[in-house]
């Protein structure tokens, strides 16, 4: 399996997708605030294994259709979009939220759990 390539910035459609997910967790004003933070956040690199652990999410299997589609992109040398995250809170036991890119994180993990994934991170506070 070739090394995962990453785009420099998320795709434009990733922000509304993140907002749709976050709207299940927060009110519209909070979602708008988080989305604005994500748009302006710098790219930070985090490992797939750490993202999944902090989000308390299971690794999806490689045969999941969406993970497989991203694995096919990796195999064909196509770059994946960075992941959009909302920071958790250790003190209040709130997990990291993968606002957009769960399948991309899983695909990257299947190729190498230690690969640095470009992310943008917003905070609830």
Automatic annotation (TrEMBL):
This is ParB/Sulfiredoxin domain-containing protein. It comes from Antrihabitans stalactiti.
